[in-house]
Design brief:
Layout: H1 2-6, E1 14-17, H2 23-34, E2 38-43, H3 46-58, E3 62-67, H4 73-87, E4 92-95, H5 110-135, E5 145-150, H6 163-185, E6 190-197, H7 203-214, H8 221-231, H9 240-251, E7 262-265
Parallel strand pairs: 1-2, 1-4, 2-3, 4-5, 5-6, 6-7
Helix pairs in contact: 2-3, 2-9, 4-5, 5-6
Length: 272
Amino acid sequence: MKEILDAFMLEGKACLVTGAGRGIGLKCAEVLAAAGAKVVVTDVMQEEGIDVVKGIRSSGGTAIFRKLDVTDEAQWEAVIRNTVEEFGGLDVLVNNAGMEGNNLVENISLDQWRKVMSVNADGVFLGTKHAILAMKPGGIAGSGGSIINMCSMCGLIAIPNTATYSATKGAVRLFTKVAALECAQLKYGIRVNSVHPGVINTPLLVKGTHQQVELGLLPSFEEGIAMYERMHPMGRLGDPVDVARAVLYLASEASAFTTGSELVLDGGYTAQ
């Protein structure tokens, strides 16, 4: 039994989490650190990211902050190289950074479409690409690892007013599977999986709900939140820790035979 529980631990592993300044990314960083990982907290929000690092260190964990715009390939190369220099490798990448995109298809501008795509899809592509280059045999880390791409139930089903967001998550879903197959067939020792949360209680949800109210897509913020709660058969919003625990599983040896998979955390929504 101890061996089974030990498989969930990440002692000494180097983990990089994007968008870790708040919400799901913050909680993922905290949980991975609590499991023994050395965590690189990245975000475009420097002050928030530094605060996350302070919190992890005050709890006895190991973490550093690096500013990262996930749409910038040169920054990805630099941050991954620095991770290997600081922590001796790169074992886990959590591609969590993302942004909302709420509007009717007919009202979406091309600039809005491209902005959400650049963060949610391009960012995951760049992170996965450069993590593979680092983790594969002959790479600067070269010891294999786990890549976890934050997707959504919107990558599995259609929900009105989410066309841009859903398109990015649908892209991430299938991109993850292709990357997983390539890494498995090439014997890289790299697993690639996606996580599909339902509606999670995060600052991004609050911002997106207010945005939909402003656009006239929801009657009020309070009614919007209540609607989201009713959407899930379990009758509540998800909590960031619900997602972080799933990320810990995929990051650890407990999921050693799991790749190209979709881990759905939606309170039963897509089971309906």
